[in-house]
Amino acid sequence: MSEGSLEAPTRHVIAWREEDFYDTQKLDVELRRVFDICHGCRRCFNLCDSFPKLFDLIDDSESGELDTVSSVDFKPVIDACTMCDMCFMSKCPYVPPHEFDLDFPHLILRARAIEARENGIGVAAKQLTKTDRNGKWAAPVAGIANWASKRGNSLTRPVMEATLGIHADAELPKFTSKPFSSRNNQAPTVNVDAPAYGRKAVLYATCFTTYNNPKIGISARAVLAHNGVETKIVYPKCCGMPQLEQGDILGVAATAADVAETLKPWIERGYDVIALVPSCALMLKFEWPLIIPENVDVQSLSKSTFDITEYIVSIGKKEGMVDGLSPLNGGVSVHISCHSRAQNMGQKGAEMLRLIPDTDVDVIERCSGHGGSWGIMIDNFDVALKIGKPVARKVAEKAARHIVSECPLAREHILQGVERINEKPADVSQVQHPIQLLALAYDL
């Protein structure tokens, strides 16, 4: 038996359609097998709150071993997982093909799927997963919605805390009155003299870019057109990451099939697919093919999908970028998000920003602690800031003019951490995503 595997990690198809997958006794056996191995290893102690909770649970038990821990006490460990995939990707020496065959995030997914089947998904949690519906409802009244959700609003935030469980001090994304997916007729002129002219791509706009920050999509489209890439906006629906976090695998499967069918004609016409937020790229590339592996459209989509930073870097390496990038004053701190790292593509956000001449780029590759909707909830907000404190501390020390993350939500969470350290809001630009900085450097 080897201590760790030197081979590339692999993942198994998720057997969510088999009844054994939902057998609570078999789940308990597997939880105990995995938790016992984690207890003996403990390399993941500094990732998220799941592992400290697990180790404290065992250490405080009668025997100091897992055999005297009740299974009913596993729930806090399960609930603390943000499904960031970092234990699988960067810490665990026992992931497949190792004989121990550990996949902690997908084990947690199984536990949540069982809980969702047996008890349903809570009303508040279910409403928060409806990102498309919420964005559509908010768009006509974006100003009012943003006022109501603003931190410090003593009229509305206590109500949101009481009804939805969202911490009153958590920064929430703003809504736009003009969704990005409605802007197909505003395509920028494609630069026919660019080295990469002839490329064409559809932008899977994601719910965040569509309903919260269209500037990410506008910047991406401008940079791509400037570098010769024709683009179309295609956004059928949310990728289903919020549903996956709640254990609604059936809902994710239906979404995957629908989106893949919509994007199929574009792929057949030679278009690449670019996701503008890393969580969505991760779903299209890796999670969907493990949920419905028999769907050929999903498999084709997986092979055709790129993260926006990954795609820009590929242009730089293969054809070459158009000249004209100007330095950015004040420096940049760029956070490499967990769901970017989980795509196993390298620090593409940092690689892309290093294309900008004479610009100080400081890279932070550590979890922000946000974890999607997990980090904004009452029970998790303070823990999320604690997990992200090393990132916030480094950002505060660097004091760069631009703070960006491949995950825009993580960026806002990091700034909240900086605010707590400095006891005042950070004096930074409003740019959230690295692609916006590239557009700025091109003066687009």
Structure description:
The chain contains 22 helices and seven strands. α11 (214-226) packs across α22 (434-441) and α14 packs antiparallel against α15 (296-304). The protein folds into four domains: 19-119; 123-164, no CATH class; 180-317, Rossmann fold (3-Layer(aba) Sandwich); 324-441, Rossmann fold (3-Layer(aba) Sandwich), CATH 3.40.50. By secondary structure, it is of the alpha/beta class. It starts with 23 loop residues before the first helix and ends with a helix. Helix content is 48%, strand content 6%. The strands form two sheets. The protein has a four-stranded parallel β-sheet with strand order 2-1-3-4, sandwiched between helices. It is globular.
Topology:
Elements: H1 24-41, H2 50-59, H3 75-80, H4 86-91, H5 104-119, H6 123-129, H7 131-138, H8 142-149, H9 157-164, E1 200-204, H10 206-211, H11 214-226, E2 230-233, H12 241-245, H13 249-268, E3 272-275, H14 278-291, H15 296-304, E4 305-307, H16 308-318, E5 332-335, H17 338-341, H18 348-353, E6 361-364, H19 381-387, H20 389-398, E7 402-405, H21 408-422, H22 434-441
Parallel strand pairs: 1-2, 1-3, 3-4, 5-6, 5-7
Helix pairs in contact: 1-5, 11-22, 13-15, 14-15, 20-21
